[in-house]
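User: Please predict the structure of the protein below. I'd like the answer in structure-token form so I can feed it into my own downstream comparison script.

Assistant: Understood. Taking the following sequence of 337 residues as input:
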Amino acid sequence: MSGIAIVGGGPTGLNAAIYTARADRRTLVFALLGTFLFLDGFDFGAGAIFATLSDDEGREAVLSAIGPFWDGNEVWLVVFGGALFAAFPSVYAGLFSRHYLLMFGILGALILRGLAPEMYEQRHDARWHRWWGRSFVAGSVLAPFLLGAFAGNWLVGSPRSLTLVGVVTGVAVTALTVVSGAAFLRLKVREALPETVTEIGVAAVAAYLLAVVATLGVLATRLPAGVDALLSPPVIALVAASVGLGAGYAVALRRGASLVALAAAGGLTYGLIAVVGVLMYPRIDPATGATVGEAVVSTLPLNLMSIGSALLLPLVVAYFAVLYSAFSGPITAEEAY
């Protein structure tokens, strides 16, 4: 690790501070990815649940619930990409060149998910609604699935777009978005949606936990450390916490504590990202074997990134605080997308 003196097994003094700062950038990048997956995740989940609704009132309620938020939530994907490029440009270049098909797929799904609700409201005949409703569902399901596939391939360093670990991770991420979506819709929409939305959320959290187990099983055969990596105390603790959060989510959702259920879904989301980060550490690009210290930019641009983050992130957070405050509470019957 260039520029870091190792004494007694670890960096000391000024070099220790530099090492910590570099590790913090990695944590920030993963935290931004988790924020996008949670905030836009409940939009994706709402889109998947949209497919289970047959009445116009329920479908309009879903669109009204996510209408003020979905485009703003996608900002976090841009922030994640910008932070990855600023802190680890070689990783950004390598990941996006190896998985450009997945990147185009994700962008295409996001475009479809954003375009479909707008088109859905332009006309009011059954055939038009059926076409754009299906497009909305397709974009809402494909985006998290492909994002999960991207994360799984990143974790194991696979250069291919279609892999077993990518598929099982994609299924896990898609199920997780339905978990968030059910809690969000129960929080924002009450009378207009059937009780089956609650059961969908409970089934989704069970499916998510099963998908996580399947993913860990596949990773045991793909990670260099094998089963030993999965039996490390941090991974065991995170998996146990996920099981507890999943159970708490199901209980809260069935009791009508939608905000608690949504918070539990957020914990599951950040827990999943934490598992990926722990399994990958100290590498940031397993495909090349590059570690955080090897891939991070030099000290000067790193410091400039810190200054930029300190100035811009509070503004982004303030914007979202105002947005969610302005549109807090359940939607009314008069609101439309």
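That's the full token string. Strands lie at 6-7, 10-11, 283-285, 290-291.
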